[in-house]
Write a structure and sequence with these properties.
mainly alpha; 2 helices; 40 residues; single chain; 0% strand; globular
Length: 40
């Protein structure tokens, strides 16, 4: 899978921010990964 474009990445990212919970970068990436079919 290719790297998602900025527009494809933006909505899931903003939805995650709307939770208003403090997250580390790693936690954000872990939560965003399933939206793009990325695994560890």
């Amino acid at each position: 899978m290719s790297i998602p474009s900025q527009n494809d990445f933006l909505l899931p990212f903003l939805n995650l921010l709307s939770i208003r919970q403090t997250l580390t970068r790693g936690q954000m990436l872990y939560q965003l990964a399933p939206n793009f079919g990325i695994s560890q």
